[in-house]
Design brief:
This protein has strands at 5-7, 10-11, 15-18, 22-24, 29-30, 34-38, 41-43, 48-49, 53-58, 74-79, 82-88, 99-107, 115-117, 120-123. The chain is mainly β and 130 residues long.
């Protein structure tokens, strides 16, 4: 439990990950199914999965320590190669309300991908202003 898990060798059987990401490097081979609950599965070109790959998005309400990447409720909308992310933040309070973050996500391909998220934040207690 946790993550991310980087696989560069061979796994004979199934692979399951809870609340973390699975990254299959170009030399990775999984002899069974890959199941990711509460994270993402990323397969590099050349990675091989003999079974199926099933992912169930990030965990809802999972607790993270300060400084960890924020990954609470997250919805991603795909349109071709473009993605738009919408998610609820973790620091709700009665004065400012719930932070709702949205914006584009850009991710490069390859064995060492770069991910860029540009998020705008709207707080539920601020009315219609950003």
């Amino acid at each position: 439990m946790g993550g991310p898990l980087h696989v560069a060798g061979r796994i004979d059987g199934d692979l399951a990950m809870v609340n973390g990401d699975v990254v299959l490097e170009p030399t990775a081979v999984v002899g069974g199914d890959v199941l990711v609950v509460g994270g993402e599965a990323r397969l590099a070109d050349g990675a091989e999965v003999l079974g199926t790959v099933t992912t169930y998005g990030p965990a809802v309400g999972e607790h993270r320590r300060r400084g960890d990447r924020e990954r609470e409720d997250r919805w991603t909308f795909h349109a071709g190669d473009s993605r738009l992310m919408l998610r609820a933040g973790t620091n709700y309070n009665r004065v400012e309300g719930l932070p709702i973050m949205f914006g584009p996500v850009i991710e490069t391909a390859g064995s060492n991908p770069l991910r860029l998220e540009a998020m705008a934040i709207w707080r539920s207690e601020s009315g219609r202003s950003f």
